[in-house]
Each structure stands twice: as structure tokens, then as C-alpha cells.
Design a protein that fits this description.
The chain is of the alpha/beta class. Helices cover 36% and strands 25% of the residues. It is built from 9 helices and 13 strands. The protein is elongated and about 65 Å long. Bound molecules: adenosine-5'-triphosphate.
């Protein structure tokens, strides 16, 4: 398998591509989406059933132990620019895999944490990018459910991006006529009509009942912005 993959890499000088280690729901989703976007992906899992499950959807999937430096070197992992450690519930395997990748060096490492403690350990080890998919998704769902937003994405630094049906205070006027940005610091960036076509918003954009709006603003302001 390692030889097979080496043939695919063609001995490129510049590092590129992403190694995904751990093919549970999170790892498999990342690997498939990266490949869909045209990124070269090497997916690794030490469990045969997990490998078989994703094999029909990915070009390069191998069975291997991410905690073994020897295995990762055999699989040409040092030739990749980026690695994602998508092992959550097996804390020891997650930490060991991350530490082996750090030891190999020169690879940008991202890691999934299933708990704040796991995230703290990974961060203290020097992993700069730590995902918290379960808690992030839980917070996102809370905003969608409580505010009737269609979607809610935290952007960091206290800002969020929200998709919602146009609230009454926007309907029947142009965006330039509303006080939303002036009064609340909330900016409408795009508007979609009921037929589904999105248009970039500008001051002359007229909002009609049934439109969907995409807005950006301070998360606390968006939470107080009643949309029903
Ligand atoms: P998800 O929520 O994404 O489904 P999880 O956090 O519940 O994942 P884990 O038990 O962390 O699941 O495992 C994710 C994947 O990582 C599994 O397919 C598992 O076989 C794989 N895995 C665990 N340890 C290793 C290891 N040492 N090397 C490679 N893969 C591993």
C-alpha cells in the first residue's frame, strides 16, 4: 500500500495534500469533502471496517496505526503539508498520533478534541489548530432552535453569520432605509428570493416578505435581534 501511494506522489518536491488519520464520522466527512474539492487525500485508520466503509468514496485509503512513526513514514506521511488527527474518543491514540506528527515535523497539524481536557492537552503539546465539532455543533444548534434561525455560524472574535427569513423590520423597504447597521452593527450581506437565487446585498436591495437574508454582526446583537 505504501509503495502504491508513493507511486501516486510522483516524488513532488513541494509538500501538499492532507493526511486524515481516524475515519469515524468526522474524519470520513473531512476526507471526502477535501477530495471533492480537489485536494489530494491520504486517509488512514487502524480498523478494517472503518477503512472498508470509506474505501468506495476515496482514492487513497489505507489501514495503519497512526501512533506508529514507522507506519506513517512508510506511508509517505512526511511528504504531506497537512494532517488532521480525527480520533476523538481514544484519548491515548489521539495524543500519541499528534505527538508522532509533531516529531516528524514540517506538517501543519489539526486535531479533533471530544472534550475540553483533550483540547487542552493537544494545545499544550503545540497543536495550533484544535477542532471541537461536538460542542461547536451543539452551540450552533442552540442558536438555530432558540432564534428560529435557518443557520448560525460563529466566526470568532464575538461575531457570527446568520441565515434567517427576513424579519418584519426589514420587509417592504430597501436596506439603505433600514437602521439595522447604524443602530445594531448588523450588516445584511446577501438576500435570497423565494425562488432560491442569492444576490449580494447593497443599499438599494429591496427586501420582500419570504426572502431569506444572510447577515453578519456581533453575536450578542444577533441573539437579541428578534426575527419571528
Ligand atoms: P466520530 O465521532 O468522528 O465518529 P469518534 O471520536 O467517536 O469519531 P473514535 O473512537 O475517536 O471515534 O475513532 C475515530 C476513528 O479513529 C475510528 O474509525 C478508529 O478506528 C480510528 N482510530 C482509533 N485509533 C486509531 C489509531 N491508533 N490509528 C488510526 N486510526 C485510529
Amino acid at each position: 500500500m505504501a509503495q502504491l501511494f508513493k507511486n501516486v506522489r510522483h516524488g513532488e518536491a513541494a509538500r501538499s495534500g492532507v493526511v486524515v488519520i481516524g475515519l469515524g464520522r468526522f474524519g470520513a466527512a473531512i476526507a471526502k469533502e477535501l477530495e471533492r474539492c480537489g485536494v489530494e487525500v491520504l486517509a488512514i485508520d487502524n480498523d478494517e471496517a472503518s477503512v472498508q466503509k470509506v474505501a468506495p468514496h476515496l482514492t487513497h485509503v489505507v489501514r495503519g496505526d497512526g501512533t506508529s512513526e514507522e507506519v506513517l513514514r512508510q506511508l509517505s506521511v512526511p511528504e504531506f503539508s497537512t494532517a488532521v488527527v480525527a480520533i476523538g474518543s481514544n484519548l491515548a491514540a489521539s495524543i500519541l498520533t499528534a505527538s508522532v506528527l509533531l516529531k516528524i515535523g514540517g506538517i501543519e497539524v489539526w486535531a479533533k478534541a471530544s472534550s475540553p481536557e483533550q483540547g487542552q492537552i493537544l494545545t499544550q503539546m503545540g497543536i495550533e489548530h484544535v477542532f471541537y465539532p461536538e460542542s461547536d455543533m451543539g452551540r450552533r444548534a442552540a442558536h438555530v432552535v432558540s432564534q428560529s434561525f435557518l443557520d448560525y455560524i460563529e466566526l470568532g472574535y464575538g461575531f457570527a453569520l446568520v441565515a434567517t427569513l427576513a424579519p418584519k423590520d426589514l420587509v417592504g423597504q430597501t436596506l439603505g432605509e433600514t437602521a439595522l447597521r447604524r443602530a445594531e452593527g448588523i450588516t445584511v450581506v446577501a438576500v435570497r428570493d423565494p425562488n432560491g437565487s442569492w444576490e449580494t446585498a447593497h443599499s438599494e436591495t429591496f427586501v420582500t416578505e419570504g426572502d431569506t437574508v444572510l447577515v453578519v454582526g456581533p453575536a450578542d446583537k444577533l441573539d437579541r435581534w428578534r426575527v419571528r
